[in-house]
Amino acid sequence: MTGLPLPGDLAARARDVLSGRVTPEPPRDSATVVVLREGPGGLEVYLLRRKSTMAFAAGAHVFPGGGVDPRDTDQAVAWAGPSTEEWGRLLGADERVARGLVCAAVRETFEECGVLLAGPDERSVVADTTGDDWEADRLALIDRGLAFADFLSRRGLVLRSDLLKPWAHWITPEIEPRRFDTRFFVAVLPEGQRARDVSGEADHATWRRPAEALDQARAGEIFLMPPTYRTLTELAEHDGVDGVDGVLAAPREIVTIMPRVVEVGGELRLVVA
Prior knowledge:
Number of domains: 1
Number of helices: 7
Low-confidence stretches: none
CATH class: Alpha Beta
Radius of gyration: 19 Å
Mean pLDDT: 92
Distance between the termini: 9 Å
Helix content: 25-40%
CATH topology: Nucleoside Triphosphate Pyrophosphohydrolase
Strand content: 25-35%
Oligomer: single chain
CATH superfamily: Nucleoside Triphosphate Pyrophosphohydrolase
């Protein structure tokens, strides 16, 4: 149980939290989507490098995602695929929270990389989201001038919840000043669409094979937070998206993971169970 050593400022806050001098911040519901595709060498994932100026996970390579907008729980969201009740069972949440998480997953993926898991009906998906009108809507969603439900309604689209597969559940450690209660999903890049480097929170975007990203992290070439590292490790066990051994066919038991702090030889370390 070696864990990750905590830097000075975070170690000081950890001692304050552990001693009861500081009350942990409540985590905010959020969603992260691992966008997948079949590349020339096999399975690839889409990664964004967060700007060094970001308050949370600065410089880290991450998957698209973000917090739930209160309007994501709107009953008016056009929906196809598993019901909100079924998603609640899959995610271990009530229907309202489940609806918000799934909507946030689809909305944030569109906002951060231009990929939209929605279509005119339950059997189709939008083929291209690169026009100026799409870009205007994407920016309006980002600045919250446009609600996701209104965006779908205006374009005559339904959210394709069946294109998402639940993958994991991570909660930011209690010692962090910014905390998130995050459900991880995987989704395949829809045919005709392309992921684009459009996130205002990132300064670089890339497709990588999971094993390649892990090698780069171990070599110190990129920085991966524990949930990203663990997810890539799990995905590296699969050669592709489909098939018996593909990611989509992989059985998943969603277990909540919240890293905790332990003291080793007088040094505080973050341990992932």
